[in-house]
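Folds vary. Our protein:
___
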Amino acid sequence: MPPLTVLDSPTDRPVLDLRDVAESAAEALKDASALEIVRWAVATFGDRICLTSSMSDAALVHLVSTVKPGIDVLFVDTGYHFAETIGTRDAVEAVYPVNVINVTPSRTVEEQEAALGPRLYGRNPDLCCHLRKVEPLGRALEGYMAWFSGIRREETASRRERRVIEWDGRRGMVKVNPILNWTQQEMDDYISDNGILVNPLHHDGYPSIGCAPCTRRVAPGEDPRSGRWAGLGKSECGIHL
C-alpha cells in the first residue's frame, strides 16, 4: 500500500491540501478493508470528522464507533420519517457510544406547506429533498473537515464509479465511504455477526427506507430501491450526487 497522507493535527487546512489528501488516500485505500479506511480517517481528521446515518441500520455506526467512540452521528429529521425510523434513531443513541445530532430543516412541514403548498414531495420531489435533506445536512456539516457515508457501490448505478475516499467539492470537505465495496451479503453478515440494530421496516418489505410519503414496500425479486420515489423517475435524494 502506498504511503498515506495524515494531517499533523486536525485543524483548519487550505482546501487544496484536503483535496490532495483525498486524492492520495483514494488510490492508497482502494483495496483496503472498511476498518482500515475508518482507522485512517479517524487518525487523519480526529474530532473534525462526523458520520451521517439514515437510521436504516446501525452497521456503519457500530463500525466507526469501535474506532472512535463518541463520534457525532448526524440524522436528518425531515419531518416525514416513519415512526420506526425515529425509533431506530432513539435506539441507536441509547445503545451505541455515539453522539446523535438531530438535524432539522429551516422550516417545519407545516411552514413549508403554507409557503409552497401541500405535498411538495409529490409535485416536486427534487425540491422537497433539497429543502428537507440536502440543505439541512449541508449546514450541519459546516465545521467538519470530513464525513463518513454508508453508501455502497451496488445500490444504484450512480454509485458504481464512486471511490472509498472522495473530494466533496460542493461542501469543500472529504467524504469517506468505508463500506462502498460491501455486497448485500457482506452487509447482512456484518449485521448478523455483530447483533446490529436494524430498522424494523426491513422485516416488513422495505429494503430501502426513506420518507414515508415517498417509500413503498418492495415485492420479492424487485430491485431493493424500487420502492423509493416509485413512479417519480428519481433514485437519489441529492445528498450523494
The two ends are 29 Å apart (CA to CA). The longest helix spans residues 125-141. The helical segments are 15-28, 34-45, 59-67, 83-95, 109-116, 120-123, 125-141, 184-194. Strands lie at 49-52, 72-76, 99-103, 146-148, 165-168, 173-176.
